[in-house]
Amino acid sequence: MRTKTLRILMASLIMGLAYIGNTSAQCDSIARICADNVTADYISDGQSYRALLNGDQVAEFRATFYGGSTYRIAGCSGFTDGNLIFEIYDEDHNQLFASSDYKNTPYWDFEFGSTVDCTIEAKLNLNNVKSGCAAMVIGFKQ
Amino acid sequence: MTKSYFSNKWIGFSGALAFAAIFMVGCVSDVKKDDGGGDENAAAVDSSTTKLMSIGGSMFSIPSPIQTAMLIEKSGSDYNKQFLNDAKRVTTYATNYQKALNLGVYGADVGYVTIYDQSQDAIKYMGVINKLTDELGITGAFDESTIKRFENNFGKRDSMLNLVAVAYRNADAFLKDNDRMNVGALVLAGGWIETLYFTTQIAVKDGNQDVINRIGEQKYTLNNIVKMLTPYYNQPEYDVLVDELIELAYDFDAIDIQYTYEKPQVDIANKTTKINSRTDVVITPEHLQAIADKVKTIRNKIVGQQ
Fold first, then answer.
1. What tens digit of pLDDT does each residue of B182-196 get?
2. A16 contacts in chain B (CB < 8 Å)
3. Which of B31, B268, B275 sits opposite A59 (nearest CB)?
4. Is B274 helix (H, G, I), strand (E, B) or coil?
5. In this predicted model, which residue has the larger pLDDT, B25 or A90?
6. Which of B52, B194, B272 should be substituted to probe chain A, the one whose Cβ sees the most A Cβ atoms within 10 Å?
7. pLDDT under 70: residue ranges of chain B
């Protein structure tokens, strides 16, 4: 009995660690592919944004975009375009952008005339994927 | 007797590991559901999340120190080495807490010196950053080849800045992948504090309105930094830093920020949206001085400057 319990626990441990390892590796690959959307004329903001999403879950992150800058925001999940939908809201929750309005474009540019505090929400395009790693990349130019 | 003790201990250890693994896997999908109603709280990510998920309910994007350094250069302010952390101090940072914060500090400094085309200083700071990433066990971000590529791009300012920024992004990814988000948060906080330090010093000296406004806009980012660090409040040294930042936030509360929404304009052909909303900042000279003084105290403590 004890041996059987131990085996189950060990199997769970191995599967769990393997899952986590695979997820990290998958996220790394997706983030690298996503970064290709942010071309050399944009400077990276120096951060890596990732979330593991399942079904209709939504990942949220807060960002301040400076006036006088143009930003490129790229969002990806999986290895093909259009798997991630991202939306940008201002501090009063006015929608400033939704990638779903533009065929789930994997990237878009934003010219900020003035500094704006924003929330970015990212969710899976359930027509294409049911779960996976969501990666976002931000670059800027002035 | 010994065998029995070992078996029980082993089972307990295995069980704990298995439980931890199951718990971690279970948490991977621990994100709130989208109710489709556009409710802000409903869209938030649950705080009990894994290394791949958000921090304290949201992920935080801390603006790049490079952007503010660019604004300073554009304002006409002269290069001033006195505002930067001395590279020689790197040997005095003993704990991971100090190393992580100063990795952020030196990242902001290398951005500043690169923008002012101070190549020799930039190389010196890159060496210091390489040392700190090594000591923190961050692999795949800064190494000899990064420094070599940096040197090979002398004269191409944006390429040099991007090399540094991508290296910091790789370090950030490494820390998140390895469940060391507390270290990542310190790196971001250190970079932000150093940038705010030299920005406030320059603003007090030069009085440039664009630079002063940029300081006022840090009210948003300061709130995000505090939220980002708060989950680690019970760890040694973090509590003091968070308390100091909360004290600083009281000074920022005196800054008046008015936000006005304007409808964005879309240029589909160029995949561009122009954001027309406005944020107006009002900050008095007294408040600016108070913030500058407090930031200087926090920053000097971090870098170990008397």
1. 999 999 999 999 999
2. 18, 21-22, 24-25
3. B31
4. strand
5. A90
6. B52
7. 1-57
Count of H helices and E strands in chain B?
Answer: 11, 5
Domain boundaries, chain A: 5-141
pLDDT tens readout for residues A45-86? 999 899 999 999 999 989 999 999 999 999 999 888 999 999
In angstroms, the CA B127 to CA B87 distance is 9
Who among B74, B170, B277 is closest to A90 (CB)?
B277
Number of Cβ atoms within 10 Å of the Cβ of B262: 14
Q: How confident is the model at residue A12 (pLDDT cuts 50, 70, 90)?
A: low
Q: Please state, in angstroms and rounded to a whole number, the distance separating the CA atoms of residues B89 and A37.
A: 38
Task: Verify whether the Cβ–Cβ distance B259 to A69 is below 8 Å.
Answer: no
Query: Which CATH number is A5-141's, of 2.40.30.20, 2.60.120.380, 1.20.58.1560, 2.40.50.90?
Result: 2.60.120.380
What part of A 29-88 touches B (C-beta under 8 Å)? 31, 35, 40-70
pTM across the whole model:
0.83
- B17 belongs to a structural domain: no
Q: Does A123 touch chain B (CB under 8 A)?
A: yes
Of B216, B49, B211, B190, residue with least CA distance to B129: B190
Domain extent, residue B219, equals 54-303
pLDDT class of A13 with cuts at 50, 70, 90: low
